Amino acid sequence: RRGARSSPACRLQQPARRWSDLPGRPGDASARWLRADRGSASVLVALWSVVLTMLVAAGVALSSALAAREAVAAAADLAALAGASATLTEPGTACTRAATIARANGATLTDCRVGGTEVWVVAQAPAPPAVRWLVPGRGSHLRARAHAELTAEDP
After folding, report:
1. Of 78, 80, 84, nearest in space to 152 by CA
2. Is the dihedral of CA 96, 101, 106, 109 positive or negative?
3. pTM of the entire structure?
4. What are phi and psi of 151, to 5 degrees?
5. Once rounded to an integer, what is the mean pLDDT over residues 56-77?
6. Which listed site, 23, 68, 73, 83, has its alpha carbon 20 to 30 Å from 152?
7. Coil, helix or strand for 107?
């Protein structure tokens, strides 16, 4: 029928003709929210980059501190062994020999005791900057103790 008006329930919805008429497009409330959120991923990436960089730096510092501690312990062990071997040939020079070996390994002997064929030593070396960064107030030196004893086995 011509001229008859159809009810609103019977009308088909017209398809969107403009880009801005679609949901989520400019002019829509959700589009304003998306525009306000623009660039937030850059901020999150920057923050996570800083966090990851700090974690890597702490890991490197920790590994440096552990390596320095092992080096001082090795120097003390070698000094104690050298001192114990010197007790067989020249007992009076055991601590001198231990100090020489500790110095050759980058440490300083701070204490040395000899008892028969046993030698107890304490060695120290400068701590790397990482130790001072990780543990403030700890001190500027790392210390290690070692003990060596020569024993004879009967054949």
Report:
1. 84
2. negative
3. 0.65
4. -125, 150
5. 90
6. 73
7. coil
